[in-house]
Amino acid sequence: MALASINGLDNAISSPKSAIAPAADGGISGLRSEFLQMMVAQINNQDPLNPLDGTQYVTQLAQFSMVEGIEQMKIQGQQQATLLDTLQVLGSTSLMGKSVTVPVQSISLAAPESLNGTIPVPAGTDALTLEVYDQSGQQVHQQEWHSPEGELAFSLAELPAGDYEFRVSASRKGETLTLSPYMARTVEKVSLPAGGGDIMLELAGIGQMSLFQVTEFGQS
Questions:
Q1: Nearest residue to 102 (alpha-carbon basis) of 125, 118, 123, 121
Q2: Residue 147 φ/ψ, nearest 5 degrees
Q3: pLDDT in tens, 34-78
């Protein structure tokens, strides 16, 4: 996608094909014109005593039709991709103010807040530990589970405004795994990279995150 911001969406909605169709159609017209010019030149310059076989023209017409068909398929593919991009953008704008669940490594709280979330537990985990550290590196929360299964829910008492880091480690058969907790955060902004790429969501306390990292969509 070549859209720089959500504010430029109107143009994409009003004419999703206009940026592609004229140029592509011109390409096909150019091929047709070149083919006809080549055919006329062959006829004009053929040897009267040894004229070209008519089957050669039929073969050339078939080859041109094949090229034209490929170009048409390319145009249709580009138009469909543009339409899908536009629909994706439209869908993402509906997320403004809604809650989405994403993996969280750290969070910045502008005001005191009680946090809660979940931790998916790998099969066969013997023990799991959740630790939370403030911006000075002091541990403000620790919670342990033994022989956990499924998806663990956790809840933290109200934390003061500031930056916090989450560390989740799981022990499984003598191996230590590093995991990420999942938390629900509000979508504050939707943006699109000017050079293309994933739709990015600005999440409260987290910052930008790709739309494709969202695991669950909720209400505001």
A1: 118
A2: 50, 50
A3: 777 777 777 777 777 777 666 776 777 777 778 777 878 888 887
pTM for the whole structure: 0.61
Nearest-angstrom CA–CA distance, 153 and 83: 40
* Cβ(201)–Cβ(214) below 8 Å: yes
Residues near 130 by beta carbon (within 8 Å), at least 6 away in sequence: 119, 141, 142, 143, 144, 154, 166, 167, 168, 181
C-alpha neighbours within 13 Å on the C-beta side of residue 86: 18
- By the 10 Å C-beta count (0-12 exposed, 13-18 middle, 19+ buried), 88 is classed as middle
| Residue where the block lists tokens 């050339």 | 60
Of residues 177, 190, 12, the one with CA closest to residue 86: 12
Decide if pLDDT at 13 tops 60.
Answer: no
pLDDT per position as a tens digit, 114-152: 999 999 999 999 999 999 999 999 999 999 999 999 999
Taking alpha carbons only, the member of 136, 135, 31 closest to residue 74 is 31
- φ, ψ of residue 136 to 5 degrees: the values are -95, 0
Residue among 200, 2, 211 nearest 101 (CA)? 211
